Amino acid sequence: DAKTTQPNSMESNEEEPVHLPCNHSTISGTDYIHWYRQLPSQGPEYVIHGLTSNVNNRMASLAIAEDRKSSTLILHRATLRDAAVYYCILIRWGGGSEKLVFGKGTKLTVNP
Amino acid sequence: NAGVTQTPKFQVLKTGQSMTLQCAQDMNHEYMSWYRQDPGMGLRLIHYSVGAGITDQGEVPNGYNVSRSTTEDFPLRLLSAAPSQTSVYFCASRQGPTYEQYFGPGTRLTVT
Predict the structure, then answer these.
(1) Torsions phi, psi of B83, nearest 5?
(2) Which of A18, B14, B20, B70 could tie A75 with a disulfide, CB 3.0–4.6 Å?
(3) How many other CB atoms sit within 10 Å of the CB of residue A29?
(4) Contacts of B58 (CB under 8 A, 6+ apart)
(5) Contact (CB<8Å) A46/B59
(6) Calpha distance A44→B69 (Å, rounded)
């Protein structure tokens, strides 16, 4: 599976936008970019995913670079409940995605 | 839908004891996985299954067995518990290889 690289930690203030980066320079054409987050003492939860175009849902937006070698998860107005560890992973269509590998992710701290 | 359920929530074992962590999902998902998460670490894949009767090893399979006799259930067996298996265990399921993954609430296991 292609590897992703994320910063260990980031900090934001409440009600400000947050941009969480992810590098995936070895991404292939059939790799989907998925984001998950894990709140303290909970299991991870799905946030958003995309292939080539930018995506929006009720939780966040996903901006994908034109060459697809990086992506950014955008939380438009951070709340204290968004404090979590955010994981960026690649999932390949057409096989090889039986195993999902989660790295250490980015720990987001939101200051009141 | 209950989603992904795990029992028990907490368990304390003595070294050498055996036990089974239960995982069930009611979403008719083909893919199921077991992860363990140690303090300050990301998730590590133990075993996974792509359908009833089909299982395979993940990153850290030693000391654990799984079986998948039905679509709904994916139990994880610890054959002879060791202190190194003290961790939080998460079960997850998804509809297919590129679909979002749903996680259970976790089982916190302590081996003394």
Answers:
(1) -55, -30
(2) A18
(3) 9
(4) A99, B33, B34, B35, B44, B45, B46, B47, B48
(5) no
(6) 26
DSSP calls for B50-79 = EETTEEEE-S--TTEEE--SSSSB--EEES
Which residues sit opposite A11 in a β-bridge? A109
pLDDT (tens digit, 9 = 90+) per residue, B85-103?
999 999 999 998 788 899 9
Confidence of residue A41 (pLDDT cuts 50, 70, 90): confident
Which distant-in-sequence residues (6+ apart) come within 8 Å of A9 by Cβ? A106, A107, A108, A109
CA B82, B86, B87, B93 torsion: positive or negative? positive
The string of pLDDT tens digits covering residues A8-39 is 999 999 999 999 999 999 888 888 899 999 99
A48: Cα separation from own chain's centroid: 8
Inter-chain touch B97–A92, beta carbons under 8 Å: yes
User: CB neighbours (10 Å) of residue B28?
Assistant: 10
